[in-house]
Amino acid sequence: MTEKISRFFEKSRKERLDIVERITGLTKEERQTLESLGGIGFEQADKMVENAIGTFSFPLGIATNFVINKKEYLVPMVIEEPSVIAAASKAAKIARLCGGFSMNNDESYSIGQIQIVETDVESATKKVMETSAQILELANSKSNTLSKMGKGAKEISCKKLETPSGKMLIVELLIDVGDAMGANVTNTMCEGVAPLIEQITGGRAVLKILSNYSTRRMVRGTATFDKNEVGGEKIVDNIILAYEFAASDPYRAVTHNKGIMNGIIAVANATGQDTRAIEAAAHAYAARNGKYTSLTKWSKDKDGNLVGFIELPMSVGTVGGIINVHPMAKICAKILGVSSASELACVIGAMGLAQNFSAIRALASEGIQKGHMRLHARNLAAAAGAAPDHIDSIVEQMIKEGNISINRAKELLNSD
Ligand code: NAD
What we know:
Order of helices and strands: HHHEEHEEHHHEEHEEHHHHEEHHHHH
Keywords: Oxidoreductase
Number of strands: 10
Protein name: 3-hydroxy-3-methylglutaryl coenzyme A reductase
Structural class: alpha+beta
Strand order of the largest sheet: 3-8-10-9
Distance between the termini: 47 Å
Bound molecules: nicotinamide-adenine-dinucleotide
GO molecular function, one term: hydroxymethylglutaryl-CoA reductase (NADPH) activity
Family: Belongs to the HMG-CoA reductase family.
CATH superfamily of the largest domain: 3-hydroxy-3-methylglutaryl-coenzyme A Reductase, Chain A, domain 2
GO biological process, one term: coenzyme A metabolic process
Number of helices: 17
Helix content: 40-55%
CATH class of the largest domain: Alpha Beta
């Protein structure tokens, strides 16, 4: 995919789908699935979760203009919040003028933890480390797929915890999970080696489970935003002040990072990721130095252009979980066109930075309500019962009056 798409937002649904179909090579069946009501029926939902009574669909949109590591992307986003997809596309449009997003990430190492109690931690640690080759071999016997790919359990480490119940040993398995999120294989390996570790240490294994704090799976990257496109030097300076506010104050940082997660979770939803795992790790990382802070950093280059940097753990997969099961996730993966978990992590990281740029640019200039209120007004007009061809006139009238409310939308609807 190598083309810039103009004014995607002004096109009809059919035109948008035609563009996506042409660029990504969607089949007729895939297009039909996209046009359906969310991709899964009750039968499939009933197999996914317990006590199912139905399905619940969300809007799926496409963020345009993204250039990440010199490659063009159409980025599918599943989100209910207005403005997010527009904000991402706008940020990407500005970033591409300076070459787009440059992202990189670590290998896909998950961390599995085995909690050992009722043991002498010091001597147990020594014994575990002496037997690490045998423990790794046993762990790797639990996944033929990873072993065949030269991936799987790679390292073992031990840490001592002081707790109210006394000392405990935490044995950590570092596992290269390839293109999967890897939760299940990590849990399987942890459970698989726990009896051997009990035998070696004479202790008792309590928990054997993946850590979602995936700090060996970081994504990071940067983008430069031309100062004139940002709105001039004053706005660049205001954005840096806004960043410094978030960097210094957890009350601001939580909202700042929530904006980042608007982008990240929307792409994660579209591609069938475990969004709770991504959120949990991101916020823990934001508090890694004991004080919750910004996941991004903003500064100026020597020419006064704005430079953004993002870094956070990113445990995602292109295989496993619902990724190859949910028809919409499969189609979104095809639209996105990533070939590995590593590439997906880079796209999601870039989206976080893009979203943060647009949010703080708006906050540091005209404020966010201006853009938000139009979409909010549309939702209110629809909620008041306006037909699709009537919504625009009600929205315009409410904006003109500066009175955007459900009551006013109802009044305008009834006055026609
Ligand atoms: P999964 O269980 O479907 O396993 C992935 C499979 O893909 C494995 O069987 C592996 O052998 C195979 N595979 C094929 N090609 C591969 C490749 N190139 N690289 C890696 N594996 C390849 O999925 P998973 O990723 O182990 O687990 C993800 C699911 O587990 C998510 O749905 C998540 O919500 C859930 N989960 C999460 C937690 C947690 O976060 N704490 C705990 C349990 C389960």
